[in-house]
Amino acid sequence: MPNYDVIVLGLGGMGSAALYHLAKRGVRVCGVEQFGIAHDMGSSHGQTRMIRKAYFEHPDYIPLVERAYTLWRELEAESGAELLVESGLLLSGKPNSGLIRGLETCYRVHNLPHERFNAAEGMKRYPQFTLPEEHVCYWDPVGGYLRVEGCVDKHVQCAQTHGADVLIHEDVLGWRSDKDGVSITTTKREMRANKLVLTAGAWTTASFVELLVPLRVLRKLQFWYTSPNIAEYGRGTFPAFYVDMDSGGFYGFPAINDLGIKLAEHTGGERVDDPDELDRGLRKGDESGVRDFMGAVLPQIQPERTKFSVCMYSMTADEHFLVDRHPRHPNVVLAGGFSGHGFKFSSVIGEVLADLTINGTTQHPVGFLGLGRFTSF
C-alpha cells in the first residue's frame, strides 16, 4: 500500500498549488485527480481568470492577493511560462452599488494604485464601451488575467519536478482518518498518508455538509465572440472589465486568440445538486443575459459566438472562502467555496494549505476564512 506524508485530493486551481508548495518543501506528497490535469469539468478552466487588487468583496483579501501576485511571478520564473497578464481592469457601477462602495472601502484601508472617474471619462479612454451615465468607474492598473489552464498545468509540472507523485483518472471512493493517519480508497488502489488535503471543488460538498457548512454549487456559462472589428478588442487595446448593471454583474477579457473576447455573467446561476450530473449543453436562455449586456454596453460588437463552456461556482453562504483544519480530524485540511472570485488566490492558498498541513498554522491572515464563522465544534 503506497504511503505518503500528504495526499492531496483534487488537482484543480487550489489542489495543484497545494501539491506544488508541499513538494517544494520536500514533503513526500501525492496528488489524486479524477479527471486529467487542467481539465474542463470543474471550475478551473476557460482560458482566463481575473486577477485584481481592486477587491470590493472584503479588504482583508488584499494581503493575500499581494502575496498571490508574488507567487505567480515566481511560478512564471520557475516554469518559463507567461501566466499573469496585467492588462488593466475597468470596473463600473452605480455610486451606491455594492461594487463601488466595496472599492471605496478597499482603497481607504489599503494604499493601492487606482483611479476613479465618471462614465464619460471611462468611455473616452475606452470608446468600445457605452456605460450608463450615472455610473462611476475605477481603474486597477495592475488588474488583468491569469491563463488558467497554464497555471494548473505548471503547478503540477513543477510539483513533479520537486518529487510529487500524480495519479489521474482515479475516482476517490472514500477516505477515513484515524490516530495513525488517513486511508484513501480510489477506483484503482488503497493508499495511506499521515495527512490529507481536500481540494475537490464542487465534489467536496459532502465533506462540508457533514460539518453543517453546505456549499451551494451553481451552473455557470462562459462565452467567446468574434466580430469583424475584433482587433479593437485585443490585448493592449481593450482591458479586462467588470460592469455592475441593474440586470446583473458581467465581466470579460480582451481577445487573446481567434476565439475573440470572453464574456460571462457573475450573478445568477442554476443550482447543481450533483456535479456529476451537470448539464454541459447550451440551453435556451443561457446566452440571453450576455447578449443583452453586449447590446447595451458593447454595442459596436457584431457578435459571432465561437465557443461556450459550462463550469461551476462552489459558494459558501457568505460567498467567502473556507480554509481550515477539519475540527474532528486534525490531520485533514479543507479548502472550498472559492468559485466566483477564488482562482487568483490559488498560488497563495496553496502556500496556506502547505502551512496548515505541515505546521497546523499559517502566518497568512486567513482567520476570516475559517470554519468558526459558521458554527462551533
**End-to-end gap:** 33 Å
Q: Give the second-level CATH assignment, the architecture of the largest domain.
A: 3-Layer(bba) Sandwich
Helix-strand sequence: EHEEHEEHEHEEHEEEEHEEEEEHEEEH
The main sheet comes to: 9 strands, mixed
CATH-defined topology of the largest domain? FAD/NAD(P)-binding domain
Rg, Å, rounded: 21 Å
Mean pLDDT: 95
Q: Indicate how many domains the architecture comprises.
A: 2
Under CATH, the homologous superfamily of the largest domain reads FAD/NAD(P)-binding domain
Contiguous runs where pLDDT drops below 50 for at least 5 residues: none
Secondary structure: helix percent: 10-25%
Would you kindly provide a written description of the structure presented here, covering whatever features stand out?
The chain folds into 2 domains: 3-45 and 149-214 and 318-373, FAD/NAD(P)-binding domain, CATH 3.50.50.60; 88-142 and 216-315, D-Amino Acid Oxidase, subunit A, domain 2 (D-Amino Acid Oxidase, Chain A, domain 2). The protein has helices at 13-24, 62-79, 98-109, 119-125, 148-161, 205-210, 288-297, 346-359; strands spanning 3-9, 29-33, 48-51, 84-85, 89-93, 115-118, 136-140, 144-147, 165-168, 172-178, 181-186, 190-198, 216-226, 240-245, 248-253, 261-265, 270-271, 304-315, 322-325, 332-336. A hairpin with a 2-residue loop joins strand 14 (240-245) and strand 15 (248-253). Helix 2 (62-79) crosses helix 5. The longest helix has 18 residues, at 62-79. The two termini are 33 Å apart. It is built from 8 helices and 20 strands. It is an alpha+beta fold. Strands 5, 6, 7, 13, 14, 15, 16, 17 and 18 form a 9-stranded mixed β-sheet that branches. Strands 1, 2, 9, 10, 11, 12, 19 and 20 form an 8-stranded mixed β-sheet that branches.
